[in-house]
Amino acid sequence: xxxxxxxxxGQAGLQAAVSxxxxxxxxxxxxxxxxxxxxxxxxxxxxxxxxGKIPASGLDLRSPDFLAAQRIDLAGADPALVLDRAGKTVxxxxxxxxxxxxxxxxxxARRRELAAxxxxxxxxxxxxxxxxxxxxxxxxxxAERAVVVGAGFIGLEFAAVAADLGFACTVVEAAPVLLGxxxxxxxxxxxxxxxxxxxxxxxxGEGVARFEAGADGRVAKAVTSSxxxxxxxxxxxxxxxxxxxxxxxxxxxxxxxGIVVDRRLRTSDPDISAIGDCAVAPHPQSERPLRIESVQxxxxxxxxLARVLAGADEAYAALPWFxxxxxxxxxxxxxxxxxxxxxxxxxxxxxxxxxxxxxRGTRLLGVESVNRPADHMAARRFVGTSLAxxxxxASDESLDLKRFLP
Length: 406
Ligand code: FAD
Known about the structure:
By secondary structure, the protein is of the alpha/beta class. The chain has three domains: 4-110 and 241-309, FAD/NAD(P)-binding domain (3-Layer(bba) Sandwich), CATH 3.50.50.60; 113-237, FAD/NAD(P)-binding domain, CATH 3.50.50.60; 328-404, FAD/NAD-linked reductase, C-terminal dimerisation domain (Enolase-like, domain 1, 2-Layer Sandwich), CATH 3.30.390.30. Helices cover 21% and strands 27% of the residues. It is built from nine helices and 25 strands. It has helices at residues 11-22, 64-69, 130-139, 153-164, 185-197, 246-250, 295-309, 373-382, 391-394, and strands at residues 4-7, 29-32, 72-75, 80-84, 89-92, 97-99, 102-105, 109-111, 124-125, 145-149, 168-173, 201-204, 208-213, 219-224, 229-231, 234-237, 241-243, 259-260, 272-274, 279-280, 321-326, 329-335, 342-346, 354-360, 363-370. A hairpin with a 4-residue loop joins strand 5 and strand 6. The chain binds flavin-adenine dinucleotide. The site of flavin-adenine dinucleotide (FAD) has 37 residues, from helix 1, helix 7 and strand 21. This is NAD(P)/FAD-dependent oxidoreductase.
């Protein structure tokens, strides 16, 4: 393909553009974004940025000079509205029409909103975009009592920041445990104990039925499904995201909770690919196609797609990995632990440093590491290979994990 148009100027879209130049693509590359400014990284939004440790400009992934030198044409704050597959064009909100030979959809995901009444009151925040984080950060000075809806990664990272800043913080979670099915029970228990030791309170098996305003019109209370009224001058809602697959679906591409792609990241139209948070892709580690929300997945799929477009006939198979920083815990996960039926602990959770090896039968699905980065780095190399330690080996602390590396 000569003219490549990429819709979505986030982590995945930018990576695809950069990697296309690395593999020698010389034709025009246009990166279409719907947010102002340069492409930026999201992970610090719920961590260092909120704590004031890095400025907004420190979030940018690449400089304007870099984009110019790479001939990556950024059309920012101009969302793609219509995809005409027959004519192979994309129309932007400004009316600009772009012709493509190959189209990449890297549209990411958007926050899932709460339906509870009062959800639009001032003081109720979400955390997906730089604008969301700036609005939230601006409120951190004047508030004292925070309610977090959802004990997922975003909610917990925010709860850790709120505790650092001296807030009284309550986390309301519909499920009986935190982090849903994303981590093993051992890790979930450890994360919970850390938050509780820092003063955060959890209400499990609860939702928010409604929010109530105070005299100033701002949120003052979150009333739970069982009728508890939690006082709050700040609410953070982190109840998951929805894939941005509307443009794809409206043009007749296959979608199923995201844009469906094959092992080469092609959609049901061979001239269109999808990558990152918006894509549902098969993976050798999973029985079912997956939509993965992580920086690693966005970057690796962006790189992979560039190689495929340059002619490589390779199936996408990069090992998924993920991290989260919360209140002194660096949690790192290598592999896909969903469906594990037994675990082996290496290290003592009491010491604050341990790893959980998650097996299904004899197969090592993944490794969770808490403040054991060397275990994580090793696991990224042996999970999914025949070299991975078997159950008995994993539990033997005297065995150095380095012996399982390729
Ligand atoms: P995005 O980064 O969402 O980029 C997609 C872009 O496309 C967006 O700018 C979107 O607005 C734009 N777009 C959508 N539709 C259109 C359209 N029609 N026209 C033009 N543009 C459009 N992952 C980790 O691995 N570790 C972490 O610690 C971590 N922390 C996170 C913390 C926060 C607060 C958030 C929000 C996410 C975090 N993630 C983390 C997840 C990670 O940031 C995402 O998985 C990653 O950004 C996905 O990249 P993407 O390019 O697919 O999507």
